[in-house]
Amino acid sequence: MTQEVTRSLYYQEMIRMNDREYTDFVLNKVSSKTLDEPIIASSLGLAGEVGEIADLVKKYTFHNHKLAVEEVMEELGDLFFYMTLMMNTLETTLDEIIEMNVQKLNERYPEGFESIRSMNRG
């Protein structure tokens, strides 16, 4: 089986997971030391993955590389992994995070994005 077919089957299996199943998957993939300090581990993991995305964008923007879309997507998956670890630690859900974010942004930009509102956030 080729790597591409294996990856496709893997993604199909992941798509069928619900939130709880994915959280259990994440918790099964981290070390016991990570589980001892999950806030630190998830925070550092998020920072590291954002750094990897930034590096890919830097190479695209300044080094004339082709944008590595698949690599960016893989890093986004890693971000979600660490987000899930942090959400589990905080005993919250993706739905709650989305709801809070929508409320915050609707209050900040009730008519849609406006530069002036961005500059005067306080």
How would you characterize this protein structure?
This protein folds into two domains: 3-91, Helix Hairpins (Orthogonal Bundle); 92-122, no CATH class. By secondary structure, the chain is mainly α. The protein has seven helices and no strands. The radius of gyration is 18 Å and the shape is globular. The chain has helices at residues 3-15, 19-29, 32-36, 38-62, 69-89, 94-108, 115-119.
Q: What is the CA-CA span between the terminal residues? A: 56 Å
Beta-sheet strand percentage? under 5%
How large, in whole angstroms, is the Cα Rg?
A: 18 Å
The SSE string, one letter per element, is HHHHHHH
The profile of the biggest β sheet is:
none
Number of domains: 2
Label the overall shape.
Answer: globular
Rounded mean pLDDT score: 91
Number of strands: 0
Low-confidence stretches: none
The CATH class of the largest domain: Mainly Alpha
Number of helices: 7
Oligomer designation: single chain
The helix-and-strand class reads mainly alpha
CATH overall fold name of the largest domain = Helix Hairpins
Question: Would you identify the CATH architecture of the largest domain?
Answer: Orthogonal Bundle
State the helicity in percent bands: over 70%
Based on the model shown, name its key terms.
Helix Hairpins, mainly alpha, 122 residues, 2 domains
